Amino acid sequence: MMRAPTREAAILFVKKFALLVIGVAITHFGVALSMIPDIGIGAYDAFGLTVSHVSGVDVSIIYAAMSGFFLLGQIVIERKRFRLTELFQLVFVFGSGFFTAIFTEHVFNGVSVENYAAKIFVLAAAIMCKAVGLITVIESYLIRVPMEGFCVCIAERTPFTMGQVRMAFDVIFVVFIAVITPLADLPWTVREGTAIAFLIHGPMLDILQKPARRLFGKMGVYPPYMAGSARLAYVRASKEPTSDSQLSIHNNPPF
Q1: Do residues 62 and 51 lie in contact, with contact meaning Cβ atoms separated by under 8 Å?
Q2: Using alpha carbons only, what angle is made at residue 208 by residues 17 and 109, rounded to the nearest 5 degrees?
Q3: What is the spatial distance between Cα 13 and Cα 247, in angstroms, rounded to a whole number?
Q4: Cα(34)–Cα(100) distance, rounded to whole angstroms?
Q5: How many C-beta neighbours within 10 Å does residue 153 have?
Q6: Is residue 252 exposed (0-12), middle (13-18) or buried (19+ Cβ within 10 Å)?
Q7: What pLDDT was estimated at residue 242?
Q8: Rounded CA gap, 40 and 189, in Å?
Q9: Residue 3 and residue 26: Cα distance in Å, rounded?
Q10: pLDDT for position 67
């Protein structure tokens, strides 16, 4: 017989869900903002657009297929550890257009930037917004995002950080585009904005991870494997001495 969720568990779920929605909104605020400068798109988006040009398949279907591939990769890597709730990533994929449409049609409609330096600044701000949104979704521990979630799975099993893995995929995407575009006589989908996104996005995920985890930990939202010691690590560590193992978790939380 299944036991009804406790009040504490229900409150925790509400907190995670709220962080998820906030994270999705911030992410797609950044997506909409990145369209204003018109100086190139990120490597992931450029890759999908190039594949669309080559195959003739609508780009939205290509992006959905890419997300499905990375979600499948999570399942293959984690196997029995894969949580069924992660399948709700499909909702994130197909529902993300809702937030993007709101920001593009009602917030940034008619907004343009003519000065080139201002375009660079706006794009950098957009990329940082996307990173803040994505790390909020990831650290909510309700669901992951297909691409970044796949990077998390790899990072947990290798010496590399999530940001480093993400940057490696960007390199792969750009190499593919650089090879296919001239061979197929396609329009270039990478520009200076792609390089800016490459330099900012991955490192920002690494930079934001620990602060986000500490902030959310104070709200009671923390990685499942830290459930036994998270309260000590995030609440009591600043007030009273802890053991060496607790200090290790507090200063360098494993991920």
Answers
A1: yes
A2: 70
A3: 28
A4: 11
A5: 22
A6: exposed
A7: 46
A8: 7
A9: 35
A10: 85
- How many whole angstroms separate alpha carbon 238 and alpha carbon 68? 42
> Which two structure tokens, joined as six digits, stand for 124?
């950098």
Round to whole Å and give the CA distance between 92 and 22.
12
Tokens, residue 25:
């909104």
Write the burial class of residue 15 (CB in 10 Å: 0-12 exposed, 13-18 middle, 19+ buried). middle
Lowest-pLDDT range of 60-69, 76-85, 150-159, 228-237: 228-237
Could you say which DSSP state residue 56 is in? -
pLDDT of residue 236: 38
What six digits make up the tokens of 176? 């593919």
Question: Residue 203: which of 162, 144, 145, 159 has the closest Cα?
Answer: 162
Q: With bands split at pLDDT 50, 70 and 90, how would you rate the model's confidence at 53?
A: confident
Question: What's the whole-number mean pLDDT along residues 10-32?
Answer: 85
CA distance 223 to 236: 17
Written as six digits, the tokens of 80 are 């029995």
Of residues 93 and 21, more confidently modeled: 21
**By mean pLDDT, which of 72-81, 95-104, 116-125, 166-175 is the weakest?**
95-104
In the structure encoding, which two tokens stand for residue 254, read together?
Answer: 């494993």
Q: Determine phi and psi for 141, rounding to 5 degrees.
A: 55, 35
